[in-house]
Amino acid sequence: GLDKMWIFFNGSGTVATEDSFNATSLTDNGTGDYTVDIVNDMGNANYAYYLTVSQLRHSSSGFNFRGNGYSAVTASAIRIATLFISATDGSGTAADVADINISIKGDLA
After folding, report:
1. pLDDT tens figures, 53-99
2. Cα–Cα distance for residue pair 4/6, rounded to 1 Å
3. What is the pTM of this model?
4. Alpha-carbon torsion 91, 86, 11, 20, what sign?
5. DSSP helix/strand/coil, 97
6. C-alpha 48: how far from its chain's center?
7. SS3 string of 6-58?
8. Closest CA to 66 of 78, 81, 56, 77
9. Cα separation of 18 and 11, whole Å?
10. How far apart, in Å, do the first and last CA atoms of the chain sit?
11. C-alpha span between 78 and 33 (Å, rounded)
12. Tens of pLDDT along 36-48?
């Protein structure tokens, strides 16, 4: 079905939600580390989530961007990490990213 939660936020500089549905507080835990609280909890922590990240101003720097879920995915929150990934050796470094999108599919509680 339909997305049960989604959020679009700026993860660089002053972290701020641009738009969202069923998402409440957004926490900046440190460089490239964010937590989004879910208003109406999911039925459990076994939901599907989709994450995209982009930072156009660095698109020619030789880095790609990747988002990962932490093990701290719960029915009431999702914590993610964003990384710069080197195009030459594939190594990753935590990085704040300008545009972050998360959507969740699953059953609500």
Report:
1. 876 544 544 445 566 666 678 999 999 888 877 777 777 788 888 88
2. 7
3. 0.85
4. negative
5. coil
6. 13
7. EEEEECCCCCEEEEEECEEEEEEEECCEEEEEECCCECCCCCEEEEEEECHHH
8. 81
9. 10
10. 15
11. 11
12. 999 999 999 999 9
